Amino acid sequence: MYKFILAALLLLVSSPGLAETPAARGKALYMKVGCYQCHGTVGQGGTAGLRLAPDPLPWQQFAQFVHNTAGIMPPYREQALPAADLKDIYTYLQTIPKPRDLSRYPLLAPFR
After folding, report:
1. What percentage of residues in the chain have a pLDDT greater than 90?
2. Nearest to 62 by CA among 86, 82, 45, 31
3. pTM of the entire structure?
4. Domains and CATH numbers, the chain
5. Which residue among 31, 45, 72, 73 is least crowded, i.e. fewest CB within 10 A of its CB?
């Protein structure tokens, strides 16, 4: 009986329907490789990095920049951040919603 339950659990856990999504993998990679340190936890930008989300650059331009930049940001070459992993990060950035419209909140007018 226990062998049957164990086999059923293993089958359930390894089924493709429960696999981690590309966006979830991308979010984990975004944190793991340190993107959040400059670009913020949701790509909002910060003092050291530009805003990445919502609406990131087109994929080809984004990938080209990340892999080959010669600017302030160090390049994350293909060997350090494979294109498949970068695509998952890009997918995560695409899932980040736009911020709320602050014009609906009169008390926040001075902060716009």
Report:
1. 64
2. 86
3. 0.76
4. 27-98 (1.10.760.10)
5. 72
